[in-house]
From TrEMBL:
GO terms for molecular function: DNA binding; sigma factor activity. Residues 147-199 form the RNA polymerase sigma factor 70 region 4 type domain. Keywords: Sigma factor, Transcription, Transcription regulation. Residues 1-23 are annotated as: Disordered. This is Sigma-70 family RNA polymerase sigma factor. The keyword Metal-binding does not apply. It comes from the Bacteria. One of its GO terms (biological process) is DNA-templated transcription initiation. It comes from Actinomadura physcomitrii. Residues 49-115 form the RNA polymerase sigma-70 region domain. Belongs to the sigma-70 factor family. ECF subfamily. InterPro entries: RNA_pol_sigma-70-like (IPR039425), RNA_pol_sigma-70_dom (IPR014284), RNA_pol_sigma70_r2 (IPR007627), RNA_pol_sigma70_r4_t2 (IPR013249), RNA_pol_sigma_r2 (IPR013325), RNA_pol_sigma_r3/r4-like (IPR013324), WH-like_DNA-bd_sf (IPR036388). Pfam families: Sigma70_r2, Sigma70_r4_2.
Amino acid sequence: MTTGPHDPSRTARRPRGPMAGRREDLRGARLDALLRRVAGGDAGAFEELYDATAAAVHGLALRVLRDPAQAEEVAQEVLTEVWRTARRYDPSRGGAMGWIMTMAHRRAVDRVRSEHAAAARDDRAARLEPPAAHDGVADLVMDRLDRQRLRDCMDHLTGPQRESITLAYYDGHTYREVADRIGVPLGTVKTRMRDGMIRLRDCLGVAS
């Protein structure tokens, strides 16, 4: 028996039921609670928040930047910023995931603008034209200074702390994957991450 042309409406996604909405509400409440604990300096809560949000943060950055290496770097910067600035989160203005994803989108867009500004300057220099004033120069300089400060502060960590943080944030591994990769207990990785993040926070001048 022949069938007629495919009707997309027959396979349209069904509306979410009340259970799906309930699950989203519970997830949002859990992230809000974790972020409040992170604001109090709870490294364990930060580990859970990282595991729950890192993939989404990286995915958004990748969609904006279309460059895996830069997306990983931006995701690292965003999650570090979450740790540093969690006290600024205001639940009355939206959920934790929205706050984090807004931060990620802003960082990714800023990176695109910075790269475009740098490419434009290089192009002008190649043509031996005097550089024109650009409204984004100050933002570009500050962005690069922030990244340089983070790299400098990473150098102040112990080798094991730096290795654990690099694997978790630059390479995107969970804490358990980091432990398996370097052959130490999970608790040791958590301790290194907690102490390393505290050192980074102090080095970057963020109040505890």
